[in-house]
Amino acid sequence: MILKKLIMHNFGVYESTNQFEFNGTNPVVLIGGMNGRGKTTFLEAVLLGLYGSNSFAYTESKYKTYGQYLKSYVNKTDGTKKTYVELEFSLDGSEEEIYLIHREWDGDSQRVREKIWVKKNGEDNSFLTENWPMFVENILPSALSSFFFFDGEKIAELAVENTNDQMKESIKALLGISILDQLNNDIGRIISRLSSAANEDQDLQYLEQLRKKRDLADNDLKDIDDEIQRSHEKIQNLNIELEKKNSEYAIKGGDIVEQRHDLMKQRSQQLALLERYEDDFLEIVSGAMPLMLVKNLLFDIEKQGRLEQAYKTAVMATEKVQNLYNDYILKHPDTKETLNKFVEFIQKDSEAQKKEEIYGLTDNTLYQLNRLNLDELEQCEKHVKMQLHRRDTSKKKIDEIDNYLSVDIDEKALNRIFKRIKELEKEILIEEVNLSSLQQKRITLHGTAMIAESEFSKAAEQVLSSLESNDDNKRTVKYAHMTIEIIKRYRIRLQQRKTDILANTMTDCYKKLAYKKHLIEKIQMDPVTLDIHYLNGSNEEVEKKKLSAGEKQLMVISLLWALAICSKKKLPVIIDTPLSRLDSIHREALILTYFPNASEQTIILSTDSEIDQKYYELLKPHIGDEFTLVYDDELMKTTIKKGYLFEGK
What we know:
Blueprint: E1 2-11, E2 14-21, E3 28-32, H1 39-51, H2 56-59, H3 66-72, E4 82-90, E5 98-106, E6 115-120, E7 123-124, H4 126-139, E8 149-151, H5 152-160, H6 165-175, H7 178-196, H8 200-215, H9 224-251, H10 254-285, H11 295-331, H12 336-352, H13 363-405, H14 411-441, H15 445-468, H16 473-513, E9 522-525, E10 532-535, E11 541-542, H17 549-566, E12 573-576, H18 584-597, E13 602-606, H19 613-619, E14 623-632, E15 637-642
Helix pairs in contact: 4-9, 5-17, 7-16, 8-15, 9-14, 10-13, 11-12, 11-13, 14-15, 16-17
């Protein structure tokens, strides 16, 4: 993947429309700016464009809903509150497959709704628009995006921590182990649910408490406000879960299932068009088209035919003149000598035009040949090319539809997700109705009684459901525990196979960056815990606390570099605040070794204290594009200028 263009309109500190366009042939893109000028905003705009609500920038943010997150980035300076982010990229760096993803939203509305559309090679693509989460997950899974798009400050924080569960989870995602954890959790929930069936008395006690609460609701007016607040929070939490389920549904190809009928219909239509184009093509080539093979010969025939026709005309004219001459001499014998010379001239001229008759074309045949050469063959060629283009376009559309229809989809899993989505929508609707009822009748006992009755009914339904599903629980729990044990053993073996490769790659990356080449001779990764161990030349473990802050940060960067290599994905790398807490020696290692080789496109977001004049000159041979973020203190907005901070100084 190569990023070609990023457009931000009223996004964060970028007022109005601001565009980054990447055209350079060298791998490094350098974007300079002081703190607070929009460097991190650039990174989050790319993540938002690709992943939307699946972006780790959103999931790790303080915002409880995606709508709140979008609203936080609306620049209100021009008063429109209309915001969009548009990202254009190619998959393999060529011009054959170019994708444009556009997300826009209105910050003026109470509930922010995102609009999205996708173009492929400049044309609107409804399938990609409706299935973008699944498509982008195939290019770069959101769980792995932090390996390619990261903040140097966060890397520095990770480097000083003793453990990092988030990093381990990302490694599991790369190694394909996280799916086993998900399976393990699902089985664990089954065990928990079945085991809790034995505690029926507790559920009944809770149900009794709700019954008392319902009976005493008319004396508990002070709790109404608390109930309203709890209802707000529940709706918010349900909406968060609904967003996640909708994203999961789209990623797993749910929209394709819904579109399958339309896709089949489109395929039938394209097949019919293809057959028609083939018939038209055959009709054309069965006519004058084969004569294109002898086009030059036809021109020669026409030329020869015209010469033959001219000679015939000259012969006829000569004969006519001879007859007229004979008649004239009989009447004027004294002019015979003079006219003889004229007749001889005509005869010689006619003889000069004499050509061997090869084709003997008639006037009508010569006329038809002229039309063929002058227009018909050219029109025929244009028509054939047009039909071939139509045929190829139709074939391409059929292939695309076949690719979409061939996507492997777990319909059982989709049905479970879809069922949960409908349940959540129903729960949200019910809770919104309850909230509205509370707000309207909160000063009355009747409103409180309705809330208490709703809670009691839901709890009673849950208890009855658990009682009905308690058959053969012990046997199910037994085999579920056996399954968990098998998964545990399989995960260890799988991790053992893959962690060795990752550790060796990380060792190579670290040695390319580290100043003390022999401090760490080998890096190992525990296949069970995924803890990383550093070994010296004597095969003794080097304690992490003995490493400097810069060396620790290099370790994390080496891990990210190794993970990117092992993923075998040709993707851009975006680094925000790249040289945080590194000394000059390690900074130079990153400048000369890592940045030019991290990816086919490495975008660096830096201040003047990181990529300063010295490092800029070292990096210059590898820079393809460079920009400076210019901030206007009065207007409080950032604009983009070509060239880096030091260019021209």
